[in-house]
Target: 3-methylmercaptopropionyl-CoA dehydrogenase
Amino acid sequence: MATYNAPIREINFVLNDVLDVGRLAKEIPAFADATPDVILGLAEEAAKLIEGQIAPLNHTGDQVGCKVKDGVVTVPPGFAEAYKLYSQAGWMSLCNTTQYDGQGLPYTLSKVVEEMLCSANVAFALYPGLTTGCFEAIYANGSEEIKNTYLPKLSTGEWSGTMCITEAHAGSDVGAAKTKATPNGDGSYSIEGQKIFITSGEHEMVDNIIHFVLARLPDSPPGVKGLSTFVVPKYLVNKDGSLGARNKLVAATIEHKMGINGSCTCVMQFDGAQGWMVGAPNTGIQNMFVMMNLARIMVGFQGLGQCELATQNAIRYAIDRKQGKAFNGKPEIIEHADVRRMLLTMKATTEGARVLAYETAFWVDVTHHHPDEKVREEAQDWVDLNTPLVKAFCTDGAVELGSLAIQVYGGHGFIKEHGVEQIARDAKILCLYEGTNGIQAMDLVRRKLMMHNGRLAQRFFQAVRNELNADAPLGWITRPLGRAVDELESTTKFLIESFKTAPDAAGFGAVDFQRAFALTYLGWNWLRMIKAAAQHPDEGFRASKKATAEFFITRMLPQVHSLLGTVRAPTESLMALEAANF
Amino acid sequence: MATYNAPIREINFVLNDVLDVGRLAKEIPAFADATPDVILGLAEEAAKLIEGQIAPLNHTGDQVGCKVKDGVVTVPPGFAEAYKLYSQAGWMSLCNTTQYDGQGLPYTLSKVVEEMLCSANVAFALYPGLTTGCFEAIYANGSEEIKNTYLPKLSTGEWSGTMCITEAHAGSDVGAAKTKATPNGDGSYSIEGQKIFITSGEHEMVDNIIHFVLARLPDSPPGVKGLSTFVVPKYLVNKDGSLGARNKLVAATIEHKMGINGSCTCVMQFDGAQGWMVGAPNTGIQNMFVMMNLARIMVGFQGLGQCELATQNAIRYAIDRKQGKAFNGKPEIIEHADVRRMLLTMKATTEGARVLAYETAFWVDVTHHHPDEKVREEAQDWVDLNTPLVKAFCTDGAVELGSLAIQVYGGHGFIKEHGVEQIARDAKILCLYEGTNGIQAMDLVRRKLMMHNGRLAQRFFQAVRNELNADAPLGWITRPLGRAVDELESTTKFLIESFKTAPDAAGFGAVDFQRAFALTYLGWNWLRMIKAAAQHPDEGFRASKKATAEFFITRMLPQVHSLLGTVRAPTESLMALEAANF
Model:
């Protein structure tokens, strides 16, 4: 079985030595008590519960999976008890507003806990994860009455939540959704339709499940501009907060999936279920995106968690496993060059991605709470730019690292009991949901590069260049990183231009560009990590950071140029090929 | 469910227009009747059986899997009937010698059939596949008596075969094997020990299973030089060919795996089982490699089959599936640039890999049967060079393309009923067994580059350059391909040199070098395909080849330079990092 030890030293290093998370307590009055010590202490507390109670359910959750019978969904053994432990200990409400039974702590801390939870058991993590998403969506746009009715119990996890968006014919094309919402005349609506791929759509772990549903009013225009959002509880809620009648909705079936078997993925049938509108009519797509943007960052953290799980298990196996002798005479397989190549790929990816992910979370806190509007504006630019990068890079990385972990284990990696093949299976969904990684790339190229006259990417180029004025001994990082930033910037200009006249050419290169952008971002992270590590008291830690940075700079960063080369390659004949001739 | 249509037009194109398989009938007397028409006709016959009877078992084979109880293994529904159909129709004996009930047809044809079988159902394909391996091993080194006893029934598939090599502590390090063979004094040996990961180790589909077992004589030296090979039947065979007592061996258990669930992977316990030596004492490792080299090519074909399956299903889905509108106004997702990027990656990989694989099979036929010794020598060089390339590139490609197919399907790709997630799961084992792809890379760098003073790679560079003297209109291929070959050659020299003084530096770059070599080989294949396609009567086919070649040359071939750059990057500090500091 895969095992999990929370990487507290690394988390501390990134939060405090690389990113200076202490700025939150210093600059944001609401976080005055959330000092680095408090944040780290809480992370350590969470780690104990996650390592001890939730990681051990990962393998059985995969093997046993979820069952459905007559609309009743059974989750794997131990999940209900663990959910209770986790929610009652307050880990779900960490960063929610104190107004609705939250603890008002930084979002950054909640994401650190998210990373750990998603290493330990990503299928389990979806039950709290979707609940948080539902909380955020209602919090942003719900009426006072709706907020008071649902938010306190969603905040603590006493109730759980879902997002009901996708329909069989409406996946990436959300605007094709057909689910109807007909006014009942009493302020409520009658919801009719079928939603698919509904994570945590039905289970018995909590007393009530709150569905956040995208549906169409009778007189609405077609497409995305005619969608509205509704809160639709499994059990109706009486004025006094007690639960009333069962609503007319049911889990028609659950899906059988490649992975995340511990998470129930339901087909939800709404047969005239009673719901209440959240936000204004026909603003559903905007309302949904409040939650969706944070959900994309959350999925990035799911990927980061799986990257860490793959990496630490592969390292442990390679240190333990003996096969023959390496050139240096030692029997452990970690002494073989090719095994080191794989492990360093995993370390360089995971540790670099962690800085990207944590920094994004940090900026989310700033956008929400910083007293200075100008600082909030800058923070919002970073969040907008980073969201597709975090989502796509961390999740592509999770699949790649899951596959590499199997390769490090050799044939044993293919056997279920060793637990690493589960990573490759669990992680693949992360590249698909909350917008496929191809859609993230289009978001980056079509929207984020264009926003505010290109200001978002310019902030990034400037920030990296500010860091390049380094001491000469760091030239081995700063020179190649400078070249990467230069080519990234010129390709950015090329894309902005070509998108105006040949959008498909930009579309063709979007995924490669996205990866090149993320790798350059990781180059910046490695530069900052090397600077910060110089002060670290542990010699072994410094040596590890140095070797991993060298690996990244000489073997991964150069891919930027190869990727950006393809972005400029011609596409006319590729787009002209008739579908029938493929 | 994934469906499969044998790509007969493409197979014909590669065999006849690109590779001129007619040379076999013209130059090799034994193959005088195996004209291109005969080969294609037989491939079409095989395709009917494979599409109609074996492909439909792929999904249920995955879902139901194999079971073991009291040493009796049950295969998935339909497998036994399909195995009988397949073997009785003669598809297993195609290229075996007529001396032992084979049909004496080209190995190349048998591999074309293998590709199709491995597209349709790679788990099923392992039952015939291992039987062929066992046949080859006994044929190469068995005594007349052993050959007469076992080969006719292995040839036709009336009995099936295994390779019993791996032990729990002896995977990549074969020389650590501990299974003992003690002489019984009557010419037979008593085999004691446990072998793991034994594909087709036990089942009831045939009357007898012949195990080819690597074991150690009592007085043998340690390591690989003390291993011998033995034939150990499930049921002892009487002088008259009838079956005698059950031998003392049993499937102790079967493994639960990420994929190929229809193939039983057994832990085989030999408790004093009676066996007979094949070949001389202590030559087991050489005897095994007769089979292993062909097995590696076979695994390459398994990968090719899975590449084709992923590619054709993704294309069909992208043509059928409608989601919103692309920039050209069409609703099918194949009109989106990023979907085309994925599909063209899949086509460029699969079609290019097919030429590599078929050409390797062609050279195997030449080594075995060509009357001219000099031609056989050249052919052997190609087989030696190509074996790691075919094995590693086609199987890495299968995993990548399985993952891309899921991505093309979006969220639906993650759902089992659609059948493409099975490709990603089934294909991963191909990167691990018969030598991990890292071991293939070390075979390429440590052995193949060094053999005959570097002659193997020189043949390749020369062959590509011969093809570069093309008409000017093909400069868009020949110029970048020429640059790739030049850098590949200089890096080859660098590796040969550095291996002498710093073997770990060469080991660190081996996998990247292997991929760069394979991509350059595919560049050569695409050049040859474009030349051959110019004569093709179908305009749509020509357009498809042109666009796919352009995609490969502008977007995949450039990776060669990025990969070779990493091969030359320094490794000292990466090797010096203490294991504990990872």
